[in-house]
């Protein structure tokens, strides 16, 4: 049984630590991969996402979360944290501000059918192994280890193919780049 965002938000709104544990279990790995698409450093990505979760718990920002927008909120928070981190090391001096997650989410919802069709078209253009990994994880909802077992590859190889494929998808279309992970992660 998959843990729903609604259930997680209900626990969090009651300051129940189990809600934070479930949030962490459900979103840590996908958010680390998302962060790695910006930072290109898995260790830094893990640290950044862990710091985000600690900050969420300490500041109690979760009390009034909308379960329907939880996924996009977390991804935009990670994206903003990555940009802030990169700005501190002067990599993104001239980068413009990031759109709010509400704007991204609303645009995604209003054009969902067209966006989903484009996303699936881009997935089909991926190299074979990367395409298989993406489909198994995001379209079939498999765990990384299940994918490794099914494809007869190591867990690390699954992660490598996934990171490479997500980077390709992210850059394949400037407009699509804002939406493809929102689509994939909202399915979990």
TrEMBL record:
GO biological process: DNA-templated transcription initiation
CDD domains according to UniProt: Sigma70_r4
Record bears the keyword Translocase: no
All residue ranges annotated as the RNA polymerase sigma factor 70 region 4 type domain in the record: 118-168
Pfam families: Sigma70_r2, Sigma70_r4_2
Keywords annotated in UniProt: Sigma factor, Transcription, Transcription regulation
Gene Ontology molecular function terms on file: DNA binding; sigma factor activity
Protein origin, superkingdom: Bacteria
Family: Belongs to the sigma-70 factor family. ECF subfamily.
UniProt-recorded name of the protein: RNA polymerase sigma-70 factor (ECF subfamily)
Organism: Marinifilum flexuosum
């Amino acid at each position: 049984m998959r843990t729903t965002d609604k259930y997680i938000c209900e626990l969090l709104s009651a300051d129940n630590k189990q809600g934070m544990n479930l949030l962490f279990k459900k979103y840590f790995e996908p958010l680390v991969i998302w962060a790695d698409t910006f930072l290109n450093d898995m260790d830094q990505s893990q640290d950044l996402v862990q710091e985000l979760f600690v900050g969420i718990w300490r500041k109690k920002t979760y009390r009034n979360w909308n379960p329907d927008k939880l996924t996009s909120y977390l991804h935009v928070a990670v994206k903003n944290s990555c940009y802030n981190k990169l700005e501190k090391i002067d990599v993104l001096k001239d980068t413009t501000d990031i759109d709010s997650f509400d704007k991204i989410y609303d645009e995604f919802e209003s054009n969902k059918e067209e966006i989903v069709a484009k996303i699936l078209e881009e997935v089909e253009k991926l190299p074979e192994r990367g395409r298989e990994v993406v489909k198994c994880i995001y379209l079939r909802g498999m765990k990384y280890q299940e994918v490794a077992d099914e494809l007869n590859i190591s867990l690390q190889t699954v992660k490598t193919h996934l990171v490479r494929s997500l980077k390709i998808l992210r850059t394949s279309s400037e407009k699509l780049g804002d939406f493809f992970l929102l689509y994939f992660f909202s399915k979990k």
